[in-house]
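queue> pop job 88
queue> type: inverse folding (structure -> sequence)
queue> payload:
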């Protein structure tokens, strides 16, 4: 945990702009790339579960 967190992720404002929220309320918050990967993984799992629920 000694390494500094590199700001290689996507700004939150870029993600929320797609959802329809207003991104200009706050300055962009950068997510580290590893956290972004976890968010993407959880989103994929959520979409899979929604697809399974529709089939049932």
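queue> result:
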């Amino acid at each position: 945990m000694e390494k500094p967190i590199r700001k290689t992720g996507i700004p939150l404002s870029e993600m929320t702009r797609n959802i329809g929220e207003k991104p200009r309320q706050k300055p962009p918050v950068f997510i580290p790339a590893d956290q972004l990967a976890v968010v993407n993984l959880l989103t994929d799992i959520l979409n899979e579960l929604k697809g399974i629920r529709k089939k049932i």
